[in-house]
Amino acid sequence: SFRLILDGAPLIAIHKARYFKKKDGLALGPGPFVAGLEYATDAKATVVGKPEKTFFLEALRGTGCAPEEAVMIGDDCRDDVGGAQNAGMRGILVRTGKYRPADEDKINPAPYLTCENFPAAVEHILEHLL
Questions:
Q1: How far apart are CA 130 and CA 124, in angstroms?
Q2: Which residues of the chain fall short of a pLDDT of 50?
Q3: What gap in Å lies between CA 126 and CA 78, rounded to an integer?
Q4: DSSP code, position 92
Q5: What is the pTM of this model?
Q6: Domains of the chain, first to last
Q7: Per the record's keyword annotation, is DNA-binding included, yes or no (predicted)?
């Protein structure tokens, strides 16, 4: 990848997540590798997935749902919740999966809501947002 980029190939990243959750624990995501390639080549990656605004807006296209009517539930404060909120959605952070204590404090604005798990988030939506 390094040599191809130096020779003019574009750097396209599916996303720049720092880490993800595997069965045996956390593992590095593509983000650190993309950042390394950007640094080493002076290239800027085109990110086509989360947390890019266009990713979230594209997910809504054809649904008849405006961003302010949508809610993203995720375990990644920056990429799931922050990305969704940047696109005009509400973001609910769940304390499962790759969630780490104090993740709520890593984005501004903070998540719309933080719940213990996915079912609790859905319950909140059903009770308060519909």
A1: 9
A2: none
A3: 24
A4: E
A5: 0.85
A6: 1-47 (3.40.50.1000), 64-129 (3.40.50.1000)
A7: no
